Amino acid sequence: MEISQEEYKELNPLLFSLGYRLLGSVADTEDLVQETLLKAAQIDGKNIKNKKAYLCKVMTNSCLDHLKSAQHKKEQYVGPWNPEPIIVNQGKFDSTLEVVLNKEGLSIAYLRLMENLTPHERAVFLLREAFDFPYEEIAGVVNKNKDNCRKIFSRAKTKLSTIQEESLNYECNKSIVEQFVEAFQHQKTDELLYLLSDEVILYSDGGGKVKAAIRPIIARTNVVRFVSGIVKKVPESFYYELKNVNGQPGIVTYVDGNIHSVISFYIAGEEIKEIYMVLNPEKLKMSTNNLSTN
């Protein structure tokens, strides 16, 4: 099946966005996108009427197979699991990652939200909600009938309905993150408590590779105590930058000039509901590859 340069420009970001939403891994998604395009190039496309639907089907099935094999790894994962973050080089949307995030707004909170769904629920929900596929096409992608897909979508929506809608107002959220950082720097405890939800949760992902909290930190007093303990121990070479992380304001920290962690937030109702710290060096590799000065 031949894919023109123009088709590639449209389909490559689409497949990446679909895969990244399903897997939460940049490296795995990129591998499966290339695998999907390679498979497409090796078949006779005369009988394929809709290239986009066909490629999405191949990509979705590859992701579902990958999720099955990855489930055991997640069960054995040390501590909380967070998706791989993508740090966007604002103003220069010249890569697939940046184009996708600029258009889609794939926040870490959204990706973690997908973990509440089964793989098939995730696939049906994304194809319908994020990509507006008709149920006829979704049925062909996931190899189920149309009515079954409607039920799966409804079930997925119900599972997600209890989650408060995330604020995606970048400038408003940036102001909250800046206040959060400033309050920690000057030890303004009252301001910190005001910014954090009563039941805020901090997920610290070290993957057993580096020191991190093995369990989620729950409640704002505990979160403040945990983060304050980290701040007190940072070396002199430590510094941070506010960056666009997955389309939302986040914090990138450095030690000795090397990326140390990426911190992102779930903000709703002008409160910080969840904090995601990625410290696992393997997950930060892709962030480092995509990081450049704004």
From TrEMBL:
RNA polymerase sigma-70 region domain span: 8-71
GO biological process, one term: DNA-templated transcription initiation
InterPro entries linked to this entry: ECF_Sigma-70_Domain, NTF2-like_dom_sf, RNA_pol_sigma-70_dom, RNA_pol_sigma-70_ECF, RNA_pol_sigma70_r2, RNA_pol_sigma70_r4_t2, RNA_pol_sigma_r2, RNA_pol_sigma_r3/r4-like
One family name in Pfam for this protein: Sigma70_r4_2
GO MF terms held by the record: DNA binding; sigma factor activity
Lineage: superkingdom: Bacteria
Residues of the RNA polymerase sigma factor 70 region 4 type domain: 109-160
PANTHER family named among the record's database cross-references: ECF RNA POLYMERASE SIGMA FACTOR SIGJ (PTHR30173:SF36), SIGMA 19 FACTOR (PTHR30173)
Subunit structure: Interacts transiently with the RNA polymerase catalytic core formed by RpoA, RpoB, RpoC and RpoZ (2 alpha, 1 beta, 1 beta' and 1 omega subunit) to form the RNA polymerase holoenzyme that can initiate transcription.
UniProt-recorded name of the protein: RNA polymerase sigma factor SigJ
Organism whose genome encodes this protein: Alkalibacillus haloalkaliphilus
